[in-house]
Amino acid sequence: MITEKEVTSTLDHIHDGFKNRVNATLYQRLSHLRKLEKALKDYEQELIAALKNDFNKSEFETVLTEILPVMLEIKYFKKNLKSLMKAKRVRTPLPLMPASSRIMHEAKGVVLIIGAWNYPINLTLVPLVGAIAAGNTAIVKPSELTPHTAAVLEKMIKETFKSSFVRILQGDGDFTSNLLDHPFDHIFYTGSTQVGQLVYEKAAKQLCPVTLELGGKSPAIFSRTVNYDKAVKRLIWGKMVNAGQTCVAPDYVLVPLARKEVFLESCTRYMKQFKVENLNNQTKIVNRRHFDRIEKLVTGKHKILFGGKFDAENLVIEPTIVEIFDQHHALMQEEIFGPVLPVYFYKDRIEIRKFYEKSPNPLALYIFSKDKPFIRDTIEAFPSGGVLINDTMMHLANEKLPFGGRGTSGFGNYHGNASFECFSHTKSVMKQVNWFDVDFRYFPFTDKKLGFLRKILNFFS
Ligand code: NAD
Asked: Which of 64, 184, 393, 402 is most buried, by CB atoms within 10 Å?
């Protein structure tokens, strides 16, 4: 493992890089983004192999959920960076005239990006693209739970960028905790809510701004009026991608009791159609601790509707749907983060509220309905990081939509323009002229001036 001395010298280098403007101009930023794009192409096969090694992730999923999102983010900035970097003129109020006003985006400085293991390329490189576009230098700390991917990322970044611009540092939780004692200008953290709190505490000591991309229990709420066939197909896909180890996976599903039969019919169809014949070809649970944790959640009063096989030796869980009978079941006590989907058949809206209130402020809220008032009322009644109607997870693919949580699912947003904002300081710049000056605001504050000030106050109130 890297020594404290090496960490300090790496960070000094990166701070110097920012001061020496290694990534300041439009030309530099675009050229760095192009280099990253090329590196990703060159390293694609190595990255696919590394993820296969880490938790048996398939090539299809790696390309779709890891590499493609980074490429699309780079494409967005190649197209929009010039206009994003331009200062925006804003109106100046009459009493301040003839001054002019504008808003500039200034790079924050040295950014620390701490990633989670479940999408180890996406969750480190998508924020890195935003940090680069906004003119920063960066340290990236990938998760230690996907060591093969972290090693390839480290090699790729070392070959691609100067040591004064971006570096990958590898280490576990203790290492990261110590890293947070060093000065940074922004910390971008993706991971669990518990560790997010620790990161926030450390950042507070240095008054360092933080983005926290955390987890939670994202519900899928069905109404009576929906195309059940399509809805269930999208629901099951969203739950089973990456073996359910996705921050925005539908965590649990609430279906009207009156639609139980049609819901189960569609489930039967798609659980069969999506079945991986050989479980060894399925994405694994990342380690034994997580496997045991998920297995323990399937206890108590419930009915297994589909699946239910737990293969501890190979760390594989068969896609499983479980009927639960109230919100107190073990599966409702924490984020599941695995291919187990609890379903509750509800009788009225009060029951939906009971489930929501057990884990409020989810990262995503999925509504399956054709009923406009139902959709509107559900969005208004249940605050969430984001909402997707009639699908799962695909809202992340729209770079025009800021992505982030609220409350326990985190704060701050990224993706596209939101990433640029996240990694920039918004700086107000006003310019006054010298050829015109009103004496009114200067000393001495005479009664005549006070009288005039009162008139202005009355005028505006
Ligand atoms: P984690 O919090 O255990 O680890 C994430 C990162 O934090 C790792 O790099 C790890 O080394 C580091 N870390 C661990 N202990 C630390 C400490 N004491 N101080 C500082 N850093 C420390 O999370 P995880 O298990 O890798 O990820 C799973 C969680 O992440 C789930 O809750 C999931 O919902 C959430 N998640 C959220 C998003 C999102 O975009 N909102 C995306 C993916 C995952």
From this structure: 184
Strands (E) in 232-301, as ranges, are: 250-256
Average pLDDT, whole number, for the chain?
97
The alpha carbon of 214 and the centre of ligand 1 are apart by a number of angstroms equal to: 7
What CATH number has the domain spanning 4-214+411-425?
3.40.605.10
368-418 per-position pLDDT tens digit? 999 999 999 999 999 999 999 999 999 999 999 999 999 999 999 999 999
pTM: 0.97
DSSP designation for 432: -
What atom of ligand 1 comes closest to residue 193's alpha carbon?
Answer: 32
Amino acid in position 303: K
Ligand 1 centroid, distance to 190 Cα (angstroms):
5
Delimit the domains of the chain by residue range.
4-214+411-425, 219-399
To the query of whether residue 267 is one of the catalytic residues in this protein, the response is: no
Name the band, by pLDDT with cuts 50, 70 and 90, for residue 89: very high
144 Cβ below 6 A of ligand 1: yes
Q: In what order do the strands lie in the sheet with 88-90?
A: 88-90, 100-107, 424-431
